[in-house]
Amino acid sequence: RPSPAAAPDRLPFSRITQEDLAFFRKILPGRAVTDPDLLESSNVDWLKSVKGESEFTSFHLKIYFLVVIIFNSSILTSSAGSRGNTGLVGGSVPVYDEIILSTALMNNILTFDSISGILTCQAGCVLENLSLYLEDREYIMPLDLGAKGSCHIGGNVATNAGGLRLLRYGSLRGTVLGLEVVLADGRVLDCLATLRKDNTGYDLKQLFIGSEGTLGVITSVSILCPRKPKSVNVVFLGCETFEQLLKTFQLSRGMLGEILSAFEFLDSECMRLLNTHLKLRNPISDCPFYVVIETSGSDSTHDGEKLHNFLEEAMTSSLVTDGTVATEDSKIKALWSMRERVTEALTHDGFTYKYDISLPVERIYQLVTDMREHLGNRAKSVVGYGHVGDGNLHLNVTSPAKDPALLAAIEPFVYEWTASCNGSISAEHGLGLKKRNYIYYSKPSQAVALMGNIKAMLDPKGILNPYKTLPDDLK
Ligand code: FAD
Ligand code: 2HG
Ligand code: ZN
C-alpha cells in the first residue's frame, strides 16, 4: 500500500497549450479564464492547506466536452471566484495543472412544485440563495451548513454534505430525487426525476452523490424540500460532563420527539476560540460542554410547552447547569453562530488538522480526550464539536504553522482509534486528496476494488478529478 502522506505523481495527461487557449477563447469569448488572480483563489482550498497549479478555469460545459473529446486533459469541477470551493479535504483544488470547470454561472432555479415541495435547479446555485427562494414560498432546504453563503448545491451533492439538519431530514441520499450528470465521455445522463418513488432498476444517481467529482459532473439537481416550520426554538445549554450531555440528548429525544430538529455540541476549547478570535460572547456561564438544540414544529404553544417541560426536567435532574432560549430570529441566529462559526474561529488559531469521524455516539468525546493526552503540549489547541445526533465528531488540532511532526503524531493514531471502534474516518466531508489513502481504515479491500471498477467503467481515462477519493494503489 502507498504511504498515505506521499504526494501523487502527475499522471500523463496532455497539457493545455497557448494554441488550445486561443481556440477556446475564440469559440467561447469570456468563458475561458487564465487570469492568475482569479486562478489563485481556485488553486487554493478554503483552509489554505493545499495548492494546485492550474492555469485554466472554464465557465462553460462546451469547453468540458472539447477537453474530454479532443485533449484528454484532466478536469476538476469546482468554482472560480469567491463561491464554492468550501470543501475541507483538498478535493476541490487541482493537484497539478488540471482544468477547473466552474459551475458558478449555472445558477438558475428550474422548477418548484409548491404542492410536493420538489425543487429542481442547476448545480451552481448557492445553498443560501435556494434557502431564501424557498422561504418566500413557505419551504426550506433539507440541509443547512455553516458554508451556506458560499457552497453550491452541486458541491453539496458531490460531497453528500450532512450539516445541521440531517438529524431531522436525513441525508441527501434520501432527499435528492434526481440528477443530471455529464459523464466522462461527454454523454448527458438525464436522471433528473421528480418522483418520490421510482424502483425501476438501479438507482444510478446514488453513484454520483458523494463521488466528489470523480465519476461525472453534476449539472442539475432535484431535491425534496420540507415545509417551513411555523415555530422554531433554539436553546443553548451547558453541561458539566459529556455523560450528562449524552443523557440530555436521550432526554431530548424522548421529550421533544418529533419536534427535535438539531442536537449539536461544542466543548469549552471551541468556546475559548470563539471568544478569542471572533469576539463572540458566551451567552451562558462557562461550562465544559455546550449544546445547541433546535425544535421545529407547526404549533408554537405545543412546541413551547414541550420545550418547557424538557428544560425543567433537564435542570431539575442536574443534566444541564445553565441555558438560554431563543424564539425570535436574531437571537436564534446568534445562538446558532456559536456552533456554526467554530470552523471559522479555528482558521484564526493556526494551521488546522481536521478529522471528521463517525463513531457510536457514546464514544465520540473519548477520542478528543485521548488525542489531548496523546499529543501533550505538541498541539496548540485540540477541540471537539459536531453533530451529536448523528454520532459525528469534528476533532480539530491546531498548531502555529504546518507541522509534519505533529501530523505524524496525529495520523495514523486517529484512524487506528476510529477503526478500533468500527467508526468511519470521514463522516460527511469525503476523502478528497487528504484522506483517500486512509480509506482502508473504514472500507474492506473488496469494496475499494469495486469502487475502482466503477471508476474505470465511468471514467476509463481517469480524467475526472484525478488523485482524489480513491487510494493511489488503485491507479
Ligand atoms: P467544492 O468545495 O467546490 O467541491 C467539493 C467537491 O465536490 C470537490 O471534489 C469537487 O470537485 C466536487 N464538486 C463540486 N461541484 C461539483 C459538481 N457540480 N459535480 C461534480 N462534482 C462537484 N460539510 C458537511 O458535510 N457538513 C457541514 O456542516 C459542513 N460545514 C461546513 C462549514 C464551513 C464553514 C466550511 C468551510 C465547510 C463545511 N462543510 C461541511 C464542507 C463542505 O463539504 C461543504 O461546504 C460543501 O458541501 C462543499 O460545497 P462546494 O460547492 O463548496 O464544493
Ligand atoms: C461543521 O459541522 C462542519 O461545522 C465543519 O462540518 C467541521 O471544520 C470542521 O471540522
Ligand atoms: Zn459537520
UniProtKB/TrEMBL annotation:
Reactions catalysed: (R)-malate + A = oxaloacetate + AH2
Which coenzyme or cofactor does it need? FAD
Pfam name, any one: FAD-oxidase_C
Provide a Gene Ontology MF annotation, just one. Answer: FAD binding
Record's keyword annotation contains GTP-binding: no
Q: Which UniProt keywords apply?
A: FAD, Flavoprotein, Oxidoreductase
Every copy of the FAD-binding PCMH-type domain together lies at 84-228
The enzyme's E.C. designation:
1.1.99.39
What's this protein's function?
A: Catalyzes the oxidation of D-2-hydroxyglutarate (D-2-HG) to alpha-ketoglutarate. Also catalyzes the oxidation of other D-2-hydroxyacids, such as D-malate (D-MAL) and D-lactate (D-LAC). Exhibits high activities towards D-2-HG and D-MAL but a very weak activity towards D-LAC.
Q: What is this protein called?
A: D-2-hydroxyglutarate dehydrogenase, mitochondrial
